[in-house]
Amino acid sequence: MQLKDMEPVVKKFYTGLEEGIYWARQCPECGAVEFPPHLACNACGYHKTDWVQVSGHGHLIDFTLPGPQNDKPYLKEYGKYAYGAVDIDEGSQYTYVIYGITKKKAPEIRAKLKAGETVGVHAKVIDRPGYKELTFELDD
């Protein structure tokens, strides 16, 4: 889908990625942050949320390496990756592509997660035809 064809809430999010800004929506009732943004709050159901910027930093919750059926060649252009759940610093969880996780590193990363260690990640924006895509990458 092209940026010009997107709904307003989606367009603002993707325009932000073009500008290096990470937009989320925050509920004025309970304070929950929706990232990626939603118009209503998923935590309390309140019907309205407000635009806020988030840092693009967080930590890895869990991950899985791609198999042949869900491997995406265009993602490989940017490096080795996995699919993983991220909790951003502002408190919202979602599933993203995570760069820096390889088959060789996976056991070490999984051991850190099982031991309760924080595995930091940061936003990494990649180019797609007509728009930018938000992914994350392991902190060094």
TrEMBL record:
<dbReference type="InterPro" id="IPR012340">
    <property type="entry name" value="NA-bd_OB-fold"/>
</dbReference>
<dbReference type="InterPro" id="IPR052513">
    <property type="entry name" value="Thioester_dehydratase-like"/>
</dbReference>
<protein>
    <recommendedName>
        <fullName>DUF35 domain-containing protein</fullName>
    </recommendedName>
</protein>
